[in-house]
Amino acid sequence: MGATEPHPAGQRTPPDSDPSEFPAVSATGDASVDGVLHTLTSIPELAETDQHTAYEQLHDELLAELNTEHG
Q1: Closest by Cα among 60, 27, 54, 59 to 42
Q2: How far is residue 63's CA from residue 61's CA, in Å, rounded to a whole number?
Q3: Contacts of 9 (CB under 8 A, 6+ apart)
Q4: pLDDT category, 2, cuts 50, 70, 90?
Q5: Please, are residues 3 and 14 in contact by the beta-carbon 8 Å criterion?
Q6: Distance (Å, rounded) from C-alpha 31 to C-alpha 36?
Q7: 34-58: per-residue pLDDT in tens?
Q8: Cβ contacts of residue 49 below 8 Å, gap of 6+?
Q9: N or C: at which end does the chain have fewer Cβ atoms within 10 angstroms?
Q10: What is the pLDDT of residues 3-21, one digit of tens each?
């Protein structure tokens, strides 16, 4: 598929991007958030049909962490 052709899920891959490459996840300094963000590294290994669910779960976990009082 070319860069401008839709993928089966209707998503487009930006030109010059390699779907097998995923940006490094940087530490935030918050161990709880870093633990949740670490799950990002496994998303490229998932089937495309499972990635949406993984991102939703990541979002929910980050939201829960944001709503947790620390201190």
Answers
A1: 54
A2: 5
A3: 48, 49
A4: very low
A5: yes
A6: 9
A7: 998 988 888 888 999 999 999 999 9
A8: 9
A9: C
A10: 444 445 545 454 455 655 6
Tokens 């633990």 appear where? 35
Beta carbons of 3 and 13 less than 8 angstroms apart: yes
Residue count (the chain): 71
pLDDT of residue 16: 56
What is d(CA 12, CA 23) in angstroms, rounded to the nearest whole number?
18
Q: Which residues of 21-44 are buried (b: 16+ CB within 10 A; e: fewer)?
A: eeeeeeeeeeeeeeebbeeeeeee
Residue holding tokens 């993928």?
7
